[in-house]
Specification:
Blueprint lengths: L20 E5 L3 H12 L3 E5 L11 E4 L2 E4 L10 H8 L5 E3 L4 E4 L8 E2 L8 E3 L4 H8 L6 E2 L3 E7 L7 E6 L5 E7 L1 E4 L3 H7 L7 H7 L3 E12 L16 E4 L4 E6 L10 E7 L1 H6 L5 H16 L7 E14 L6 E3 L4 E3 L9 H15 L1
Parallel strand pairs: 1-2, 1-13, 2-9, 6-15, 13-20
Antiparallel strand pairs: 3-4, 5-8, 6-7, 10-11, 11-12, 14-17, 14-18, 15-16, 16-17, 19-20
Length: about 350
């Protein structure tokens, strides 16, 4: 992990003059970074996540053939604050020395190798979600999973505070109350919905309105037949490619990442334009189309033993917010996410950190 000699650790153990109770919605890396920072500053935090585990788009999918990084494929480190946070997790993240190429035509012919990267590519082990899970672990019972926040409204007993209506398993409903502020670390569409289309904060809704994020269809496939003594892998010699194929933007051999199962596995991410065009297609239809594209690019025509397509409705930022976070002090509502400044893992971390520091 890169050294961060110039980084200055935050004052993590100060006791605030008036401890407050914050609700943080969304346990991706932005939400977890925000919640941890507030907790370390002495405040009470309840972190809500609609899925059964934290991770957000740093998700990993477990299958009978090994794990797939179904969201973010790797991360880079540019900011010393991010580097400092990663130094607290020794051994969890490893450098991925991917043999990266650029596919320059629809037939998968490589006209030139990718330019040498000056940045290291890092992955968490055994999947990208491991980093978020590790950072979320100290929150303990303050992390409420399998619970979707459906509405933010004034506290019935104290209108100066907020309460959250939630939905859980088996249509269960619950109200959590007594929050001094609510911080949203979810995609823009959900943020807009929770803000009541401007009813809770016209200022935040107006600033978020121009943000645009493209969808991304993802295909995960496995070829256990490649794991034979006389065959190290199928297809090309490269392990990752940025593609200009009209359907596929990115391919990665999952088994080439450190700490992964050896079974030959690939993850494809479709281009933003193609994903938008086929947003309403069924997973089976997308699977068939992306498998054909995969064969054209890699030359692998074998039938995979496992194939799964999923769609991230909001994946890659096209028009960012343009600032690290938003905080409406009057409404006591804040907003964070990678889409505030970009779509990188580090963007998400810095956004969550910045929001927490703004409200402490």
């Amino acid at each position: 992990m890169p050294k961060s000699a110039t980084a200055k650790p935050a004052d993590r153990h100060r006791t605030p003059a008036t401890p407050r109770h914050y609700a943080v919605i969304g346990a991706g890396i932005a939400g977890v970074a925000c919640a941890r920072t507030l907790r370390q500053a002495g405040h009470k935090v309840t972190l809500f996540e609609r899925n059964e585990a934290p991770g957000g788009r740093m998700a990993s999918a477990d299958t009978a053939f090994g794990r797939f990084d179904s969201g973010a494929q790797y991360f880079t480190v540019r900011d010393p604050r991010f580097a400092l946070a990663l130094e607290a997790t020794p051994g969890l993240c490893k450098r991925w020395s991917a043999n990266l190429v650029r596919v320059l035509d629809a037939h998968g012919r490589v006209a030139e190798a990718a330019l040498p990267s000056l940045e290291a590519h890092w992955v968490a082990q055994p999947g990208m979600d491991a980093l978020v899970a590790h950072w979320a672990a100290p929150l303990g019972d303050s992390l409420v999973t399998g619970t979707q926040v459906t509405q933010i409204e004034p506290d019935a007993l104290d209108p100066q505070r907020w309460q959250l209506r939630t939905a859980g398993a088996d249509d269960s409903q619950h109200v959590y109350s007594g929050f001094d502020a609510v911080l949203l670390a979810v995609p823009p569409s959900r943020t807009r919905a929770l803000l009541g289309d401007g009813k809770l904060s016209a200022t935040l809704s107006r600033k978020i309105e121009p943000v645009r994020i493209a969808p991304c269809w993802t295909l995960m496939i496995a070829f256990p037949q490649a794991n034979q003594p006389t065959m190290s892998h199928l297809g090309p010699q490269w392990n990752a490619a940025r593609s200009t194929h009209h359907r596929v933007a990115w391919l990665a051999r999952e088994s080439s990442k450190p700490g992964r199962d050896p079974i030959e596995r690939w993850t494809l991410q479709a281009s933003a334009a193609w994903s938008q065009e086929h947003l309403r297609d069924t997973p089976s239809r997308v699977e068939a189309k992306l498998l054909r594209a995969f064969a054209e690019i890699t030359g692998i025509h074998a039938t995979p033993a496992h194939a799964q397509a999923l769609c991230w409705n909001e994946a890659q930022t096209q028009v960012p917010l343009g600032q690290t976070h938003l905080w409406d002090a009057k409404a006591r509502i804040g907003v964070a996410g990678d889409w505030c400044t970009g779509h990188r893992v580090e963007d998400a971390f810095l956004s969550g950190l910045s929001l927490a520091l703004a409200v402490i």
